[in-house]
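Researcher: I'm preparing a figure for a lab meeting and need a structural model of a single chain. I don't have an experimental structure, so a prediction will have to do for now. The sequence is pasted below. Please return the structure as C-alpha cells so I can convert it later.
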Amino acid sequence: GNSKSLARTSARLHARVNDMAAAAAVASGASRLTMGSFFRDSGVRWVLGGWTVFTAENLIMSEYRSEIRRSWGGSGGQGAYQSMYSLLSAGTLGSTILAYWRFARFGVELRAGPVPLQLRFGAFVLRAAGFFILGQLAPPLNLSAAPIALGLTEVSKDLSAEVRGALGCPFDFNAYKDRGEVFGITRVSRRPEIFGLLAMALGGALLATTATQVAFYGLGPTVCFTVLAMHSDRTQRGNGQLSAEKEAQTSMLPLVAFLDGRQSLAQFCSEVDPVNAYTAVGLAGLAALRPPWLRWVK
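Model: Understood. Here is the structure written out cell by cell.
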C-alpha cells in the first residue's frame, strides 16, 4: 500500500515539474522575442500586409479623386467613385480582420500568464481617451428625449413642429451650429477622428499576448493612421478645406497646441460635453470587464 502511494505521489510531482518546465520554456521564448522573430511571424506579415494595402488604397483614392471621377464620365462619376472607394476599403480592412482572426492566438508569444494589472489599467485609460475623443465629435446626448419617446412627458402643442421634433430627438444636432471651426475636441487635435480610433487600438495592443495582436492593434494602426492624418492635412491644405487660421491655431498631433501655448486647457474644458464624456468612460469600463459577447475583442 505504501509503495503504491509513493508511486502516485512521485507521478504527481513528476507531472508538476513537467508543467513548470513547460511554463518556463514559454516564458523564456517570450523573453527572447526579437525584431527578426516578430517580422518572421506569419500572422504579423498577413496583418501588416493588410494594413499596408488599406493605407495605400486610401492614399491613392484620395490623391487621385478627380482623375478617377473624370474617368467614369457623366453625372454618375461621383456615385461610382464613392461606391468603389467603399468597396475597396471594406475589402482591404476586412482581409486584415480575417488575418487577425486566423492568426491572433498562434505564433510568437509575448508573455506567459495573465496580463499585468498596470497594463490593463493603461488599456482602460487609452480606450476611455479614444471613446472620449470620438464622443466629443458626436452631437450631445439629449437625455430628455427618452421620457418623451416613452410617453412619460408631453411636449406642449404650442411649440412648432420643428421644436417638438428636436426635443424628442436623442441627439442635439443644433448644439454646434454657431461655433467656429476650432472648438471643443479640435483644440486637442484637428484630426480627432483618426487619433480617437488610434487610442482605442493602442488599448488593445497593451493587452496583446501574441505578435499578431501587437501588429493588428499597435504597429499597423499607428503607421496607417499617422500617414493618413498627414495626407489629410496636405490634401485639405491644397483644396482650401484646411484654412490657414485653423492650421495656425491647432495641431495635427494630440495636445501639441496645448504644450506650445496655442490653445487653452481651461477653454477646452469649458466646451466638453459632460454626458458624452461619462458615456465614454462607461464604454471603456464595459470593454475592460469584457462580457462574453466582447471576448473576441482584446
